[in-house]
Structure formats: C-alpha cells, structure tokens
Amino acid sequence: GTPLLQVEGLKKYFPIKRGVFRHTVGHVRAVDGVDFTLYPGETLGVVGESGCGKSTMGRSVLRLLEPSAGKVIFEGKDVTKLSKSQMRAMRREMQLVFQDPYASLNPRNSVAQTLMEPMQIHHIGNRSSQIERVRSLLDRVGLDPEYASRYPHEFSGGQRQRIGIARALTLNPKLIILDEPVAALDVSVQSQVLNLLEDLQTDFNLTYIFVAHDLSVVRHISDRIMVMYLGNMAESATSDDLFDDPLHPYTQALLSAVPVPDPDAKRERIILQGDLPSPANPPTGCPFHTRCPMAMDICKREKPVWKEVKPNHQVACHLY
Ligand code: SF4
Ligand code: MG
C-alpha cells in the first residue's frame, strides 16, 4: 500500500537567546533527526523520558511547531511546504489529543460548544447537523448524548479525555497524535480509554502516533515502537520484537522497569546512573554514553549510525 505519513530527517531546534539584544547563543536540539513511515490504520508508539523530544516531534509533524529541517509527507504532500491556508485545510486530516484533557478544554464552553467549534471553523454543516454530529460522537466515545449541555468541571478525568477524543474525531481525521492520552488517568480508567482508542481505530481506520513515557502503555496498541533519547532515535521495531529482543541499552533499561506477569521470567532491573543531559548541550558521540552501562571508548567520540540489524528492526548503537 501507500504510506499515509513519511517523516524524513525531522529536526526541531529552539534558539537560546541571551542579553538585551536577544542574540541567539545556541540551540536546544529537541528533535535531532527522526525518520519513520506509517501506513493507514497503523499505530506507531513513541517512547522516552520527559525531555526526549517525543511531544515536540508530534507537534512538529502537525506543524503546530515549525520544523527546523526535514520532510513530513502526508498523503504524498510535504506539509512543511504548505501555505498557511493549505495547512488549515490539512489540519482536518491530522488531529492532536492532549495529555491533560482539563487543560485543553475551555471551562466556559459546554461540551456541545467544544465539539462544534472545529466544524464551525471549517464551515461543515449547519447548526442542527453539527448538534446531531456532537450527539453521535458522544455516544461513540461512550458518553450520554445528553451530556452535550454540560461543562468540563462536571466530568471525571476519564470522561474529559473521552470528550477530548470526541473533539479530535469531529472532522473525520486520518491521523491522530495521542500525546500521553492516559498518563493523567487512574490505572483502571487507562485501560478503558486504551480500549476505546483501539475500537475507534478499527471503526474509522485511524492512524495513530501514540506518545508515552511508559512502554507498557503502548505495547498492545502499537504495531511499531520507536524509542527516543535526547531528540534522537535509539531503536525502532515491531512491538513484539522490541519486547522480546530489545537491542539498545536504553531500551533494555526502560524494559527492565516494566513489570512482568510471570515472576519466573523476571528481568534484572537496570538502574540508569545520572540525569538526562541537557538537549542544549548534548554529549558528544552517542547521546546516551553518559548513562550507558555498556559504553565503550568509541561511544564518546562517534555518533552511532541508524542501522537495520534485523529485518524491520533498527538501532543506533556501536554494539551492533
Ligand atoms: Fe551505549 Fe555506546 Fe551503544 Fe551508545 S553506542 S548505547 S554508549 S554502547
Ligand atoms: Mg493497532
């Protein structure tokens, strides 16, 4: 088939400005070269610690942040080359669901107003068809259509996230970037929302980029998982292969923290030394070398190249 989305060499640098004249004295390399391809109906899980650039990467794909370099080819068009008005039209196809549904919902707007707004901006339908659409979307995300007249504070965290998901669906998007959509929810509610996302994906043939700091959250929903560290890709593989045969020492450390149901199969917990370095002043060579238990001399000098070491399984590490 044809890919829905191809991301090539994506970078997002933020200038660091100092002094009265706000001179640029350096850059925070939040995303420092990301590549992937997504086919319709697939889910890419993107995992890493906070500060690894995963959310910035998602926002750069949608051009909510302007990429510093690279291509974002959506249905054959490079969205980084689109004008503002072309981009506005393209936004219908690409939506974002935020981590904190409360912060992303206007407390003064009813659910109906919140869900009708995207349709009004894009001039879709009239008032009665918009209200009809709101009611059917609420039903589809497991909420009573009568809730349309209520306000965000009247809902639980899980219900608010269902509203956030309904809003993302209003324009019939093809791609949804889910930015830690269950991180703020209780564990029991998390699995309900994950199940809902899987059902919606099947019903509407949605393609997801699912950003999370927790590997276990993305395991079942993802076809592929990409592990990021300091704005760089560390490893990418199918979800099963990443869990069965993690190659990058950072992935191995992340996985060692994931609880396993079978106590006999328990892995040794790998505790990483030191803090995440600043992306304004990243380490030379391999970005992970300051914390890597396997670091060698070459790791300080040379940045490992991204290579496929098994079919469909890529890693950036001098061990391979
Ligand atoms: Fe560790 Fe070296 Fe591999 Fe980086 S390249 S992950 S420092 S072994
Ligand atoms: Mg899936």
From TrEMBL:
InterPro entries associated with the record: AAA+_ATPase, ABC_transp_ATP-bind, ABC_transporter-like_ATP-bd, ABC_transporter-like_CS, Oligopep_ABC_C, P-loop_NTPase
Pfam families given in the database record: ABC_tran, oligo_HPY
Stretches assigned to the ABC transporter domain: 5-255
SUPFAM superfamilies referenced in this protein's UniProt entry, alphabetically: P-loop containing nucleoside triphosphate hydrolases (SSF52540)
Any GO molecular function: ATP binding
The keyword Magnesium appears for this protein: no
Keywords: ATP-binding, Nucleotide-binding, Transport
Gene3D superfamilies, sorted: P-loop containing nucleotide triphosphate hydrolases (3.40.50.300)
Family: Belongs to the ABC transporter superfamily.
Name used for this protein in its record: Dipeptide ABC transporter ATP-binding protein
